[in-house]
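The record is passed on directly below:
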Amino acid sequence: MRSRISVWRTVFIASVKYAVIIALIGIPSLVLAQTRGTVQVDKDPKVDSLIGNYLVGGGKVGNGEPASASSNGYRIQIFSGSDRKEAYSVQSKFQNKFPDTHTYLSYRDPNFKVKVGDFRSRLEAEKMIEEMKPAFGGLFIIPEKINLPKLDTE
């Protein structure tokens, strides 16, 4: 009779041990289980515009329009100096005389630079320099990435 009780006792103890092991494994996975839900992303609206500019062509042209495509070309540097007011003044003077040509103002410590135009060839830039010489001095042709003009598809 004693052997029957010890067999049942052994079975009972073994089943309790397995139940404890299953509980130790199962309960944390139930507690830590992830549920399906939604993710809300809070971001500045400027992020979307920056991504759009990057995908479209890497920036904006002088008048604030998104750039189309870019290519290697030339621009004419009309000002380089550390005076910001003078840089804006030169840019404004150029825009008044040549409203159809884009201007680009950049700053690289310690100088402001004003560059104009999106010329595909050096010859185009040289022709523009001849028109600009009476009003501006110290003109340089700079090889740069340029914004290609938008094509009329209508």
User: Anything to note?
Assistant: The chain has two domains: 1-36, 69-147. Residues 52 and 100 are 25 Å apart (CA to CA).
